[in-house]
Amino acid sequence: MKQGYETERAWIEVSLPNLRHNAHILQNLMPAGCELMAVVKCEAYGHGGVLTAKELERSGVGAFAVATVEEALRLRENGIRGEILILGYTDVRRAGDLYGYDLNQSVIGFEYAEALQKTAAHLGVTVRTHIKIDTGMHRLGIRAGNLSDVIRVFAMKNLEVCGMYTHLCCADSSAPEDIAFTKGQISSFYRLTDMLEREGVRLPKLHIQSSYGLLNYPRLKCDYVRAGIALYGVDSAPGTETVLKSQLRPVLSLKSRVVLIRDVKKGESVGYGRQFTAGRESRIAILPVGYGDGYPGDLSCGRGRVRIREYCAPVAGRVCMDQLAVDITEAETVKRGDTATLIGGEGMTDAPSIAAVSGRISNELLCRMGARLPVVPVG
Ligand SMILES: *Cc1c(COP(=O)(O)O)cnc(C)c1O
Fold first, then answer.
1. What is the reported pTM?
2. Per-block average pLDDT, block size 10, for the chain (379 residues)?
3. Is 132 close to ligand 1, i.e. is its CB under 6 Å away?
4. Degrees (nearest 5) of the Cα angle 160, 161, 163?
5. Alpha-carbon span 199 to 220, nearest angstrom
6. Which of 162, 156, 82, 151 is nearest to 128 (CA)?
7. To test ligand 1's pocket by mutation, which of 42, 64, 210 has the most ligand atoms within 8 angstroms of CB?
8. Nearest C-alpha to atom 3 of ligand 1 is from which residue?
9. Most Cβ neighbours (<10 Å): which of 103, 142, 261, 366?
10. How far away, in angstroms, is 150 Cα from ligand 1 center?
């Protein structure tokens, strides 16, 4: 019989009310006429791609973005009916899937457009696309100054250009040189759209901002905002300042439970490499969760803390692949069976702080989460 999370050793809790709240907050921050495109790539940053997309679709979100064609297919196969944009590369031999599943494929370069056009023509189908414009990130896209190539893509018979977009590479920064760079990216995108209009091209849906693009450059007039991390309610890094203050709430928590409590004597060590040595008679709680579940090993040896009851107990010794130990000597009331929160909430267990311990951003921490953990929706 399938049990609830009561029998799980560790799990990811996803707060559906907080997810809906964040979507609503972001929609309210966007100018009229602009639509939220929920970025649900990489299992919705560890929140469960299908679960997240379904909940958002139920609450009125009509557009989604993923990184890969497989992610897109999984959403369609699970009943998602809204627009789906694939942000990354798809082999043009998948043109049949792009057409059959009604997906929008990013045009990542001019030669890519030519190849996709050729394959689509061969199959006798039309593929919906959004042209990616490179305005300075120099990752994907046709250079903004390359008007003639962009016009040629618009003219391709078997590509239906439904959108055109760019990506900002330092919109999260408040450093003056980064703000100047971002403004340059934005104006080169609009210079291109102006020139296209002058050439008689009917503009498709336009989009520029991701989460920090919206929070720092909220007045841009676009058709979509592609929001990921903000939708999940956490900053990329601790203490990030943004022009718009938002009341976003974290959606994900990583939880486990105390399955064993043991006493260790003064001088005894715990775990691999004997990295923790008890300086006193100590009580150690064992949690059956580890770096194999996405909890970073960098939090070993007291660099991470785990919330159990009202305590914030330090990680004792090294985080293992499947277990970790915490020092609960001072957490007197902790008992076997207690729930432990490893990621979630505020202070030392919030995602930005945990990510920062390993020199990473929340986005990376979250999307590494959950390769083998069940996702449990709550609320
Ligand atoms: C991942 C991604 C996003 C979402 O970024 P967030 O910072 O998480 O909001 C938006 N656009 C593109 C092109 C992306 O790759």
1. 0.96
2. 74 97 97 97 97 97 98 98 98 98 98 98 98 98 98 98 98 97 98 98 98 96 97 93 90 97 98 97 98 97 96 98 98 97 90 95 93 92
3. no
4. 145
5. 23
6. 162
7. 210
8. 210
9. 366
10. 23
